[in-house]
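Today's session is about reading a structure prediction critically. Students often jump straight to the picture, but the first step is always the sequence itself: look for stretches that repeat, for charged clusters, for runs of hydrophobic residues. Only then move on to the predicted structure, which in these notes is written as discrete structure tokens rather than atom positions. Here is the chain we will use throughout the hour.
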Amino acid sequence: MARRVFFSFHYANDAWRASQVRNMGVLEGNKPVSDNDWEAVKKGGDAAIEKWIDGQLSGTSCAVVLVGSQTSQRKWVIREIVKAWDAGKGVVGVRIHNLKDASENTCTADENPFYKVGYGNTGKKLASIVKLYDPSGRDSSAVYATIKNNLDGWVDEAIKIRANN
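Below is the predicted structure for this chain, in token form.
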């Protein structure tokens, strides 16, 4: 049975790439939000977005952060990471910059978003615990295959890491 996860990503830049990962059928993810629905949530302000994130995280065991070219600069992605970690969920990152978008383009790799999140009172960053995978492959199809063949194991590992931290 597929694990239920929350997918976090930069919507404007990476929705197409994220949909490829979501549609692999390896994991059961949160339902994709339409442009219209997301606009309605945003109109409710920060409190409405926080409530939406909480609802999407409910009943999941892991947050999968799909990292494109500007993911680490997105306020809500960082917030989703914090909320997932604070809720005791596994957290894992997967670079998707080498997957092609709707225009058949790849993008540059962003910095690790887990360096933006502190861990406890130690001054450590979550990047010292949470893994960010950079799927191998010479082209988009090979990267896709690497993700599809490994994503469930990466999620299981993230859940184990969280249980021990």
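Discussion point for the tutorial: The chain has a mean pLDDT of 91.
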